[in-house]
């Protein structure tokens, strides 16, 4: 079971690493980080580097695609090579999935036309402009179309657990959940727009501008 995670300059680290931590726990699941060229790419704040281990040309028919997001997706929306790879890879994949603004790539490739999909709350309007029907749901499945999208950053862990259940079984997914001790009990309840005060929303926007 080959699981391809495209990585690129300006990605959000947890978008890729969250699903990786879940899926690599299951025997027989081979996770590979792919991109345009071998070597390091830096995440959106340039503080962390991740390594591309195989190129798009090396991985043409993965069983699963997990497309992460981050500010770097904006440049990729016009990247013909990346979009062509995604369309071709999806044609034979078991599932094509995204985390955060990675769904913009699926939409730009035409994979979400007329489908509900989710992303980080800050880019839902962009998702709509690319032909999808945005929703703030944490994980959105279209199993007949082999598409799953996850909302912002940490939701990729939830999506990966669901993916593990679909690809293996519920016990495999729960075993992976136990291995990473994913039992979230955050000290604050502000993990969505609906639960956040305006002051929190404003501070998040301020931090995003400073980071980008």
Give a summary of the structure in a few sentences.
The protein is α/β, with parallel strands linked by helices. It has helices at residues 13-23, 73-76, 80-90, 102-108, 124-129, 155-167, 170-179, 198-211; strands spanning 2-6, 30-35, 39-42, 49-52, 54-55, 64-67, 95-99, 116-117, 133-134, 139-142, 147-150.
How would you describe what is shown here?
The protein is globular and about 45 Å long. β3 and β4 (about 50) form a beta hairpin. The protein has helices at about 15-25, 75, 80-90, 100-110, 125-130, 155-165, 170-180, 200-210, and strands at about 1-5, 30-35, 40, 50, 55, 65, 95-100, 115, 135, 140, 145-150. It has a single domain (about 1-185), classed as Class I glutamine amidotransferase (GATase) domain (Rossmann fold, 3-Layer(aba) Sandwich). It is α/β, with parallel strands linked by helices and about 210 residues long. The strands form three sheets. A seven-stranded mixed beta sheet has the order 5-2-1-6-7-11-10, with helices on both faces. It has eight helices and eleven strands.
